[in-house]
Amino acid sequence: xxxxxxxxxxxxxxxxxxxxxxxxxxxxxxxxxxxxxxxxxxxxxxxxxxxxxxxxxxxxxxxxxxxxxxxxxxxxxxxxxxxxxxxxxxxxxxxxxxxxxxxxxxxxxxxxxxxxxxxxxxxxxxxxxxxxxxxxxxxxxxxxxxxxxxxxxxxxxxxxxxxxxxxxxxxxxxxxxxxxxxxxxxxxxxxxxxxxxx
Length: 198
Known about the structure:
The chain is mainly α. The chain has helices spanning about 5-25, 50-70, 85-115, 135-140, 155-190; strands at about 120, 130. α1 (about 5-25) runs antiparallel to α2 (about 50-70). The longest helix has about 35 residues, at about 155-190. The chain is elongated.
């Protein structure tokens, strides 16, 4: 497969993943699916915008670059380095690295948020939310979930959305790493599009 075609497939895959991450981060601003009374009711890690900036905006740029690689001329496959195809593949390596950095940021924020757990109301304190868990202890002990009385099903909401961000970020890192290898092959060997036969 041509490295340009491969990059286009990666770009097509990264765009919906970026949209999913942005939507998950936006939904996290509504703890338990409810509108927060005050910003203090929202888990702190949501404000770091791992899904919007890291796996969202920073991933759109590499995706668009990857999509545009196939549209370039393909003279580079004949060894003519002056036409720019090899440079385009090299530049895709830099954009893939930037995308991987953004996705890594999102993964780190998600891991920290899952470890801390959500802010929630308790029976003793129904006026404002606070962290009830430490060091991810609630993950293996579901009876601790009863401590949180709201908003809504906050623990399930929190875990589901941050786990989606975590998994999606890991997939994005993998795709960007694959494009780094693909870009290296395209830079060194050229993008074999069949133009030599022409």
